[in-house]
Amino acid sequence: MARKHVVTLAIGAEPVEVSTWDELVITLDMLRPGSPWTATLWRSASGAAWQRARDLAKLYAPVELRVDGAVQIRGVIERIRDHADRSGAPLTISGRDTLAAAMVADVDPRLSLRDATLEEAFERVLSPLGINVTVGASAADVRAVQAGARPGTRTPTSARTRRRQRVDRFRPQVGQRSWEFLQQLARRHGYMIFTGPAGDGTGLIIDRPAYDAPPQGELRRKRRADGTYEGNILAGTLDLDVTDVPTDVTVFGRTRLDVMQDARHSAAVTNTRLTIRRIADVYLPRPRYLRDPRARTPQIAEQRGRHAIARAMQDFAVFEAVVQGFSWGSQERLWTINTMVTLDDEATGVRGNWLCTGVTFNRSRAGGHTTRLRLVPPGSIDLEPDPEA
Questions:
Q1: CB-based contacts of 150, cutoff 8 Å, min separation 6
Q2: Fold identical between 7-99 and 218-241+316-376?
Q3: What are the residue boundaries of the structural domains of the chain, listed by start?
Q4: 39 contacts 93 by C-beta, under 8 angstroms
Q5: C-alpha–C-alpha distance, residues 194 and 188, integer Å
Q6: Each residue's pLDDT tens digit in the chain (389 positions)?
Q7: How far apart are CA 389 and CA 274, in angstroms?
């Protein structure tokens, strides 16, 4: 039986809900910031709903997207496409979450972060943007909000995960985007950043992947005796890609300026993660050579080599699945990012608990309600702290 969900898009400072969209796509992604969304409505015979949505849609207007009452995105309208031809007149509006403004706006190069904690530094960077943001929002609470609070459960509000590490010797560059600056700052301390609803605004999560969390949901595809498959995976793809993966990385650095003797050094790091059974026993080398003036010791140069390999391996193994509906299990909890999901797919041979990094909800009149999930194996996202970054 097809699963159906109520998807609403509330527009404006005094929200007006519109739920008659012909197609609506919501993307949540912990690796690709912005949480883009798109809604399309075709003009019907009377055109009343179309005209209402058209009147409400204004660039920069605030929006809130909900699935079965659970907030998924709080953002703004960034694009309006008002089209008409002989086949009809579709109105398409799209945008991203409110923190996408940090991907467009530059950080003030005069900003001082002296004696600031990591949390305070983030707040100082974002303050000029006027965003209703909870810096250090709890990843678990945001996950619970997006999954859908059930009767009798405590609804998380704006709980925070404090990040008290001190920021030292770190200044923005002229023309540097605010989000890029925040990402660099987070990586120095071994964190990643992503967003989600928190309180009555948007939460900025400063955390690590939830590899140790218990699985939330299952993806299954089993082969029947007649050769067909059963399970909740409508379509599943295992993508193994070494297109831009080095077999080893050598980093060249040099000593600090205050050292009496200028000494150059290097560190070579071998990619030891190319060990799965679907890699040939013998293959040609693909070396990479990097120069990093901030690698002031051989140990730092070696760490930079590990980082280069980790970044290249982040998309080495990816499993994408399409399932019916937006939820899983008997409790009808919505799929969410930064959760471990149990995979058991006989068609591709993938088994185990993988991290869900991306969720795309798609509702259309033709295709009903489907969800596309993007998963990576544990350890794919490496966040080794790098104080010298």
A1: 331, 333
A2: yes
A3: 7-99, 105-207, 218-241+316-376, 248-313
A4: yes
A5: 16
A6: 567 889 999 999 888 998 888 999 999 999 999 999 999 998 876 678 888 888 999 999 999 999 999 999 999 999 999 998 888 889 999 999 999 999 999 999 998 888 888 899 999 999 999 999 999 999 999 999 999 855 444 444 445 565 667 776 678 889 999 999 999 999 988 999 999 999 899 999 999 999 999 999 999 999 999 988 999 999 999 999 999 999 999 999 976 555 545 568 899 999 999 988 899 999 999 999 999 988 888 999 999 999 999 999 999 999 999 999 999 986 579 999 999 999 999 999 999 999 999 999 999 988 899 999 999 999 999 888 877 66
A7: 26
May I ask the CATH class of domain 7-99?
Answer: mainly beta
Q: Is 300 left (phi over 0), alpha (psi -120 to 50) or beta?
A: alpha
The CATH fold of domain 218-241+316-376: Phage tail proteins - horseshoe like beta roll fold (2.30.300)
At residue 163, φ and ψ (nearest 5 deg) are: -120, 100
Q: Contact 109/125 with Cβ under 8 angstroms?
A: no
Round to whole Å and give the CA distance between 282 and 189: 37
Helix (H, G, I), strand (E, B) or coil at 308: helix
- Helix (H), strand (E), coil (C) string for 77-132: EEEEEECCECCECEEEEEEEEHHHHHHHCECCCCCCCCCCEHHHHHHHHHHHHCCC
CATH class of the domain at 105-207? alpha beta
Distance CA 138, CA 196 (A): 10
The dihedral through the CA atoms of 270, 276, 279, 281 has a sign that is: positive
Instruction: Identify any residues that bridge with 322 across adjacent strands, giving them in sequence order.
Output: 235, 372
